[in-house]
Each structure stands twice: as structure tokens, then as C-alpha cells.
Amino acid sequence: MHAMAVGDHFAVLIRGAIAADFRKHEKTREEITDLMAGGETMADLEAEIENYMDEHEGHPPPLEVVEERTSR
Questions:
Q1: The predicted structure's pLDDT at residue 21
Q2: What local confidence, expressed as pLDDT, does residue 9 receive?
Q3: Residue 56 structural domain
Q4: Quick check: 70 and 45 in contact, CB under 8 A?
Q5: pTM: predicted TM-score of the whole model, two decimal places
Q6: 43 and 23 in one domain?
Q7: pLDDT higher than threshold 70 for residue 15
Q8: How far is CA 71 from CA 15, 27, 30, 65, in A?
Q9: One domain for residues 18 and 43
């Protein structure tokens, strides 16, 4: 990740609001990547998709269901 090579202080915004504000040594590369990808929101979405697939014989949800969930 290029930002790690050049930055020493990071702020992550989600929908225009500060979700995290930290210095480089305070978080791991994985934690920063997770925050940038949506953090808990992404984990919640992954769990929701897994539950859907369990209930629908392994079939993923239709794209419109995923799009509706991610547009909230």
C-alpha cells in the first residue's frame, strides 16, 4: 500500500465522517486495509452473504440485494 510508505498519520473517512484517526505505528497494515475497505461494515456484509448462502443452498444473493445492502 503506497500510503504506508509515505504517510505517518492517517485519517479514514466513511461517508464523509472520520471513522479512524491514528499514527502509522498505532495500527497494523491489515487493520488499516480493513478500515479502508469498510471495516466492520464489510465484515457485517460478508456475514450476511454467508448466512444468505447457507439458507439458499450455497447460492449467492442476487446482485440487486447486495447493491441495496451496500448503498445504505
A1: 94
A2: 92
A3: 39-72
A4: yes
A5: 0.48
A6: no
A7: yes
A8: 11, 28, 25, 10
A9: no
Assess whether 67 and 43 both reside in one domain: yes
Write the pLDDT tens digit of every residue in 39-62: 667 777 788 888 888 998 888 878
Structural contact between residues 18 and 50, judged by C-beta atoms closer than 8 angstroms: no
**Helix 63-70 and helix 40-55: axis angle, to 10°?**
150
20 and 43 co-located in one domain: no
Instruction: Provide the domain count of the chain.
Output: 2
CA distances from 9 to 1, 69, 72 (A): 14, 31, 29
Long-range contacts of 15-23 (CB under 8 A, 24+ apart): none
Largest CA distance in the chain: 46
Residue of 3, 69, 7 whose CA lies nearest to 38: 69
